[in-house]
Amino acid sequence: MSLTDLLFAGAVGLLFGIGVFQLLRRDLIKAGMGFAMLFTAVNLFFLSVGAYEGEVAPYTENVERGLAVSDPLVQALILTAIVVSFGSYALLLGLVNIVSRRYRTVDSDEVNNLVR
Amino acid sequence: MNNLFLLGTVFIPLFAAIIGLFVSRNNRAQRYLSFVASLLTWGASLVVLIQALSDGPQVYNMGGWAAPFGIILVADNLSALFGVMASTVLMGGILYAVHCRDKCVTYPAFMPLFLCMETGLNGALYTGDLFSFFVFLELMVLASVSLVAISDDRLGLEAAIKYLFISGMGTLFLLLGIAAMYATFGTLNLADMGAQLATGERPFLARSAAIMLTAAFLLKSAVFPFHYWQPDFHTTAPTPVHAVLSSVVVKVGIYGIIRMITLLFTEEAALLQQILLVLGVVGIFFGSLGALRTYNGKRLLAYSTIGQIGFILVGIGWGTPFALAAAIIYAFNHAFIKSAMLMVMGLVSSRTNPKSADFETNAGIKRYSIQGVGSKMPALIGILWFLGGMALAGVPPMNGFISKLVIVQSGVAAGQWIALGLAVGAGVLTLTYVFRTWQFVFQTKLPEDALAVKVKPEGDSVLAPTLLIGVSILLGLYARPLIALAEMTVTQLGDPSIYIEAVRLFGG
Fold first, then answer.
1. How confident is the model at residue B4 (pLDDT cuts 50, 70, 90)?
2. Which end of chain A is more exposed for a tag (fewer CB within 10 A), N or C?
């Protein structure tokens, strides 16, 4: 295990912890931030677990020269995952915006009308 | 050769959604366009099913990149069967939306979002790639959250936020599971993973990936410990959306679980099935008792879905081939029954003024009881609810009887007496809550006090629920083809190498 791995593991754990803590708060905006952090943590995890380890960028020339290229697929996947998480984050912020206009608060306990 | 019909099932609704945005000024055109698109999708999914039955699994390489490197669409019997179920119910839902009088249906984004949901659903069912499964699932979730947020019911907004958070957590675990799978096997292709897992080797992260995927699937299906978002989210949805959410969208998780225990983690299947069996029995009781004590007609059916999903899980949990076939039959039949009953309940509440589906009157929080409103409506609506209730409770000649029958038979064959007894006992609860509601809404007189709701002369069209109930009766009277189909599906699932070989041979 190298230092980078330790760093990655620590960062993923820290982000996940903060994310879960924020997600459980009553303030919907802070919960939304926690949501974004959790996605970042998972993306970082994705980056760290690339199945093929290497040092240089995965150009075809580098492959032909026999250098150890890094795994390009995880980066493509993370890009997709970031786009998807942006979509849900934008939708969430839009919904929170409507909540704040309609109820004049973003505290989830005060908004809670679904409990009869 | 690439199967173009397979591509059509996913991309016809997507393109129709895009075209629908261009004609957003003309709501009527948008509605008919969506219906035509869903009709085409339905036709394509039927063709795929027929081809999959006659020629084995169908494959489409997206962009010409073959597996295991490219993203592929695969339709074996299971995918094709679930795909037909999904596109039929979605066609019914869109048909209901065409004649729906809800205000939200007139919004320019409603129909495109509905079609995006269909894209996500079909894509998730047909994809042969774990990561694109995640993408399609997320498309479906975002579309359904938006649809619920713009619902006529003001509480829809709250339920949508709640579901977005909870489903976001589910998605995170799915993504973690996918990352773990990729780290372990270096591939995202389901067939390739299945081939590597079939060797019996279990590297470090494989089993934890299985747990994370299971949790994500259970959350998407609203199975017992992850169920709490479902009644709120489904109750506040617009009627056509609710009909689709509660009948086919929750089946994606079921599909994922079946795929996982038959193709990927065949060795761990026994352990997972034990968990599913317990969760299923708890779910049956939880859903049925919740439906018995709830205060709203739509909510009753949402709770009932939790119970019915429990029956499917019990079938999967028993694990014999016959029980698995029974679970597939149950899932298939339940989709039509539940969507039809939800449409009937939506029909009833669309004719009341103010719009309501509640059982009790409480003017303080603007809730009005629908007691006896059915007596002022055409008899057909009451008959449809009655037939749907018979199907849900498992009374012949409806298709619900067939699904209950095969579940019980497979339970007897598997010798699982405790779970079987509990499941059948809870089935009686279904009978109670469905017919109590029937009596309450259609058989009693409308109370003549000031708070009683008015009955409007016109409401939503009765066409879609009639068609779906018709399908239910048809599947009840001619049950043999579906049972044969499910048995063929399970035979195919029993040998994962069929799926793997089909993908590999196609890739060349």
1. confident
2. N
B59: helix, strand or coil: strand
Q: What is the CA radius of gyration of chain B?
A: 22
| Model pLDDT for residues B168-200, shown as the tens digit of each residue | 889 889 999 998 888 888 888 888 888 888 887
Angle formed by the axes of helices B110-126 and B251-259, nearest 10°: 20
Q: Which residues of B touch A88 (CB under 8 A)?
A: 138, 141-142, 164, 168, 171
Alpha-helical regions (H) of B186-268: 190-197, 206-220, 230-236, 239-244, 251-259
Asked if residue B341 has pLDDT above 60, the reply is yes
* SS3 state at B60: strand
Residue B29: CB atoms within 10 Å: 14
CA B508/CA B499 separation, integer angstroms: 15
Chain A interface, Cβ < 8 Å to B: 23, 28, 31, 35, 38-39, 42, 45-46, 49-52, 73-74, 77, 80-81, 84, 87-88, 91-92, 95-96, 98-99, 102, 111-114, 116
Prediction ipTM score: 0.91
Closest CA to B104 of B435, B378, B404, B350: B350
B180 touches chain A (CB under 8 A): yes
Cβ pair B265, B210 in contact under 8 A:
yes
Of the candidates B370, B368, B327, B353, the residue with the CA atom closest to the CA atom of residue B455: B353
